[in-house]
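Thread: quick sanity check before group meeting

JM: Hey all, I'm pulling together slides for Thursday and realized we never actually wrote out the predicted structure for the chain we discussed last week. Dropping the sequence here so it's in one place. If anyone has concerns about the input, flag it before I start.
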Amino acid sequence: MARLAYSLLFYLITPLIWLRLLWRGRKQPEYLQNLGERYGFYGQSAPDKLIWVHAVSVGETRAAQPLIEGLQARWPDHRILLTGMTPTGRAAGREVYGDKVIQAYLPYDYPGAVGRFFRHFSPAFGVLMETEVWPNLLAAAQACQVPVMLANARLSARSARGYGRVAALAGPAFASFSGVAAQTAGDAERLAALGARQVEICGNLKFDVSPPEEKIALGNAWREAIGKRPVWLAASTREGEESLLLEAWRRAAVPEVLLMLVPRHPQRFDAVAALLQQEDWRFSRRSEGLPAADAQVWLGDSMGEMVAYYTLADLAFVGGSLLPLGGQNLIEAAACGCPVLVGPHTFNFQQATEDAIASGAAQRVDDPEMLNATVGALFREKTELAAMRVAARQFASAHQGAAGRTLALIERWMGRAAR
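JM (edit): ok, ran it. Output follows.
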């Protein structure tokens, strides 16, 4: 009955879903492409042997790389179907995997749409990345006898409380997983409490993603072109954070330091550029080339170049953490040897953040003023900044191995299904 009520609600909010697509399509027209796939209608044919991996957007798509490569090596006669929900995730899939995988959108969680998805593709098994728990999707997988596991699973205490409030709906969904590979012990405990079975701790797959050499080379080329000018990076900033950062940075008045500002979502690039212009900042856009010699801010309005930005930067602040948004992942920065600062709100990546702070790879700041004071202090204290850089690489290296552990579980739980 709970799933029936959920499905009826989903149908009732269909006009809102369309309005949201149209709204997003105004700034990102790709949202209005391949609409049939969002309802389970696919033009491409499906191979006989298929393994399905779902990665909702960019971060999950990139994190899935070592897992997908392992699946391809273990089951070379199967094609990988990579599904997602966003155009940026799909673009990241093309960049990372090329034609080595089949890509499609996962349909919305309507009973008919998810049923059509499984009838069309008939995967041997599925792997959902992080916390993609859709009741109708998982019920359809069971009905079609498609085992599904949750990989790189994370669940904050806040999200766990939310699922707990709809236990009649969420409980059967979590219980339907053939297995769960959790990132941390805390994640495992919360997932098991919600009904997940066969939960094991495997670590975070993002530690196993190697920064692309060509992006590292690009970052080094930027550094050579910019010269010895100090650069600090505000990475993956969210709406509302840029104005806070810029206001405080203007008061800091450190003219020799270049601020590299990279918004989290590409549809906000123009809005942030307008903010910089409105507030009379001298800025350049990455899409127009290297920063001018007198630029105070370089706006990172490009996709797929975060590794290059981290390679260029002497120090990075990882956004989404000044406001209560939960923060973004700092693992990619650490893998590039970039010291990290984070704000007070990191509940989405709590364990990784706390481990990075404990290792000396990261520091926490309370507000924009403390952020600017810390940036200035670290640029003055070169020895401390160098020690953080070493610690960042050691932290990233010490936590590798999740891909191998997850693949071992997949072989144990799913091996027979893929024969």
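AS: nice. Residues 382-398 form the longest helix (17 residues). The chain has a mean pLDDT of 94.
JM: adding both to the slides.
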